[in-house]
Amino acid sequence: MNTSTSTQIANTKTLFFALGIVFTMSMLVVASVPLYRMFCAATGIGGTTSASDYAPDASMISDREITVLFNADVNNGLPWYFKPVQRKVKVKIGEEALIFYKAVNESDHAVTGVATFNVTPFKTAYYFNKIECFCFTEQTLKPGEEVDMAVSFYIDPEMIEDENLDEIKELTLSYTFFPSDEYNKQFE
After folding, report:
1. What is the pLDDT of residue 60?
2. Helices (H) and strands (E) in the chain, counts
3. 151 & 82 share domain
4. 90 has which bridge partners?
5. Shared domain check, 130 and 117
């Protein structure tokens, strides 16, 4: 085998190795968002809450109370008024609570929005469980329409077992509404 052929083979191997790295990195980028969401939902990192089908049995309700504060923001691109109906509520750990946010479409056309959410302090998010929430789906409001949007939640009784959370007396559930992709395409 001459030097030219051996150099060509080495260059081909290097090319395929580099392409393999680029392909692998591309696949990691594509998978990173769903993997990150799964990781955050499983750990509560970033204030990501859990979803549940129902609240714990009444025997699991603790005497320990937590004050839950409610926050609401709207992205500048969404012509909505959005605020919590009540600013805070005191709940016992394990007890189901139902609260509402008010949303008003202040534009002259139907608008679809989607809410992102988190719980702070972040270390409490793992124990915050939503049973029902407007944030699970996109919300479409007609021109001038006003709606009350429900959130049903509880704080997991396992939080009592977490010594790192003994000092927690209050937490904040925060939502930010953004225009949905459908809305963006329709009015761009």
Report:
1. 74
2. 2, 10
3. yes
4. 67
5. yes
Contact 60, 118 (CB under 8 A): no
Chunked mean pLDDT (size 10), the chain, 188 residues? 75 80 69 47 46 60 93 93 96 94 96 91 90 88 96 92 92 92 49
Structure tokens at 147: 């709606």
Among 58, 41, 63, smallest CA distance to 96 is for 58
Check residue 187 and give its pLDDT: 44
Considering the domain architecture, whether residues 66 and 104 belong to the same structural domain is answered as yes
33-65 in b/e form (b: 16+ CB < 10 A) is eeeeeeebbeebeebbbbebeebbeeeebeebe
Strands 97-105 and 80-84, by their bridges, are antiparallel
d(CA 155, CA 92): 8
Total residues found in the chain within this entry: 188
Which H or E run includes 30?
A: helix 3-43
Tell me the longest C-alpha to C-alpha distance in the chain: 83
Same domain, 39 and 60: no
pLDDT at 57: 66
Give the pLDDT confidence score for residue 61 in this predicted structure.
85
Q: Is 69 helix (H, G, I), strand (E, B) or coil?
A: strand
